[in-house]
Each structure stands twice: as structure tokens, then as C-alpha cells.
């Protein structure tokens, strides 16, 4: 196939388009910000039209700078949330973000009444406030007219696909949480009924077969400035796309995404789970039918770093220097990093989870505070990977790994080397690799994976972080008891 595939990653706050050469190195890229509206009551919403506008902006920009024809468009983007639209793809209300916390109390109620555990027994997925089930249930009670007007209860990527191609579809990765049976890759009707949503079943689109290909219609072609009929692929969403783009290929391999949230994923071909265990995490279906990612996407991440920067009146670029000023163990300052207004979703679910700092004294410095928070997020990653079953090579991506000091903390706390892909656009890479395979366009997997570096463990810090992790888990256990009061 002649021409290049444009990869588009539609993130929560930024949409990025990237074109790669035959070795998997980006040659053209463009980005455009998306608006995220934080409203009273923990509500977080986005405007579908504005998001689609960012897609048009970045695609047109890279196309104008590309010296070769465009062969296809490969989409990925944020998952979860609730993107309601009518049969023509028009939004019936602003999209509810995966960050949304309006259903916090409903999730707590489902946990107390056993609804969350019933869903987990059936699907292996925990529910959290920003996923489909509680958001649909909340609107069904408080805003039923929006559901009445909707034809589709979908996600960000398939909302964009509908506008560009006219197709009403959903990738199986997006559909994975919380209703999909990972064994059959079909919705579990009992899980839907357990949420009281049987009467809204028609809003859920059946997952498309893996590696499905769509085509730009006239509306999409005019929007993007590309030819009618251009192939379009849609998925997987950004978490599994990043795993594919980073090089996760063998069972037991994992990827740490240090972004707004901390996504920890491990590749597996075993879809059995302890049905009586902690109802958290999820099985994310990938384009390969035998492969799943056991995902523990924690709500902690770089958003916490932004918070402490604002609190201390410093810039993000100062974080590395402050980490270097404080020694491993942060001068005995300890933290729990749960700063999200919607609590935590992995490796446990608790909408009331909140952050704390302990061990402060008059001798504590702002460097100690920063390091304690960064170390606590690394401890959260270790907690997630222990739950997900990490045993192989660990890859990492996201804005957090741009900090050499913080990446070193992750490696030391996790006790294993971390492979960092040379190109930061791993979500778009994964989407492009999926599109190339779907279209029969050959590529060299090993060559694409070769552009990387490895962060080694510093063994001299092992004892400090082993003790730190023990204290972290003990503090977390005590805090969870208090959150229930």
C-alpha cells in the first residue's frame, strides 16, 4: 500500500497526530488542546464538537507537511466516560469524562449492596465512578431525558468514527469495561441487569470484530481534507494502544503509563480471576483474540504533580531538581497519593479515597514533600503490578517518564529495569501498527521496537524502598478503614 498512515491519539486534554517512517520514528506530528470542563459536584465534561475540531486541526496540519500520500487514518484515544449521541452522531448533551465524579455515592452504594461484586464476578472488571455503568445509571435517575434522546451510549473514539465514517460501532477494548465477558467477548446480560440498566440495553453497540476497517464518508473527507473512501481504523483505545506501541508482546510483559493517571497493564492469555477477590481492575481485549491486558489504571499520576507544583508555587520543570535535593525515603516524609476527587479505581475501588502526608517535622523541606509524593505514586504502581501479575519486561511511557529522576524512582521501587521507547507517541504508534496489520501493510516489529533506552535499578536503594513499600501498604490499610467511617 502506497502512502503513510496518520496515527491520531485523542487524549483528554490534547489530541496528537503522528506519522512514522518505516523504522517507527516519527517524521511529522501536530497537536491541539481539548477543553476539559470541571464543574461543581465533581462533574467533568467535554464538548464532542470541540474534540472533533482538534482531530481536524491536527490531521490537516500533518497532511500539509507530509511529502507522501495518506494511506489510512488510525484512531485511538481516551477510554471510559460516556459519550451520548443520536443516530446521526450529534451529541445529545456534553460528554461525561472518565474523570467525572458525580456517581461517587452511587458506586459506594453498589459496593455496600453487592452490585459491584456481582459485576466483578461476571466480567472480572471493577466499576468506578467514571465508567459506563454508574454514569448511565446516574443519568437514568437524574437526567433520563438525555438517555431518551440518545441512540448510542459510546466512547470518545467511536463518537469521532461515527462523525468521520457514518458507522455506529465500538472497539472491543472500549467495550471491555464493565459489561464485557472476557471469555466470549460479548456483553454479559446479567451484569447489565445487575446495574438496573436492562431497559437501556439498546444504547450499547455490539463490539466490532478485531481489526475492523471503515471508510471516510463525504462529511469526514470534507472535515479532514482527505479523499472519500480513505481507510479508517478505530482502536484499540489509548491504554492497549500504548502497550502495542511500546512493544508489549509476551505474556507477563507490562507497561506503566505515567500520565494524568497511572495506568499499569500486563499482557495475559489467562482470563481466569479470583471472583471473590478485590473487585477492581479490568480485562482489556486487544485486537488479537487470545490476548488481553490485565489493567489496573490508578487515578494517581501526573495530576498529583501538577497539584503539588501549584501548592508550592513551582514549575513542573523544577521537579527533577527537587527530587535530587531529597534522598530516597524523602527524609521520613510519607504520603498516600489519592488526590482525585473521584477517589481510586485500582487496585482497589473507593470513591472516598483521599491523600495524606505523614512524618512531617520542622526539618521537612519542600523537596521532601515532592519526593514523598513521587515515591508514593511509585508504590501505587508496585501495588497495581502485583495485582496485575507482572513477571516479564516492563515498558513505560507518558509525561512522567520525561523526568529522569522520577523514572529512576519507579525502577528502584519496582525493583526491575524499565524500557522507555524513544518516541513518546506510543499510543499513536499502537494505533498505526494495528491499522497496518488490519490493512495488510507490512512492518518490521523488531525495528519499530529497537528505538528505546533502559533505566536500570540502583541496588543500593533496595532496602529503603522495601521498607517504604511496607509502610505504604500499612498506611493504606489504616486509611481505608478510616474512609469507611
Automatic annotation (TrEMBL):
<dbReference type="InterPro" id="IPR018485">
    <property type="entry name" value="FGGY_C"/>
</dbReference>
<comment type="similarity">
    <text>Belongs to the FGGY kinase family.</text>
</comment>
<feature type="domain" description="Carbohydrate kinase FGGY C-terminal">
    <location>
        <begin position="325"/>
        <end position="436"/>
    </location>
</feature>
<keyword id="KW-0859">Xylose metabolism</keyword>
<dbReference type="InterPro" id="IPR043129">
    <property type="entry name" value="ATPase_NBD"/>
</dbReference>
<keyword id="KW-0418">Kinase</keyword>
<dbReference type="InterPro" id="IPR000577">
    <property type="entry name" value="Carb_kinase_FGGY"/>
</dbReference>
<dbReference type="InterPro" id="IPR050406">
    <property type="entry name" value="FGGY_Carb_Kinase"/>
</dbReference>
<keyword id="KW-0808">Transferase</keyword>
<dbReference type="GO" id="GO:0042732">
    <property type="term" value="P:D-xylose metabolic process"/>
</dbReference>
<dbReference type="Pfam" id="PF00370">
    <property type="entry name" value="FGGY_N"/>
</dbReference>
<dbReference type="InterPro" id="IPR018484">
    <property type="entry name" value="FGGY_N"/>
</dbReference>
<protein>
    <submittedName>
        <fullName>Carbohydrate kinase</fullName>
    </submittedName>
</protein>
<dbReference type="GO" id="GO:0016301">
    <property type="term" value="F:kinase activity"/>
</dbReference>
<keyword id="KW-0119">Carbohydrate metabolism</keyword>
<feature type="domain" description="Carbohydrate kinase FGGY N-terminal">
    <location>
        <begin position="5"/>
        <end position="245"/>
    </location>
</feature>
<dbReference type="Pfam" id="PF02782">
    <property type="entry name" value="FGGY_C"/>
</dbReference>
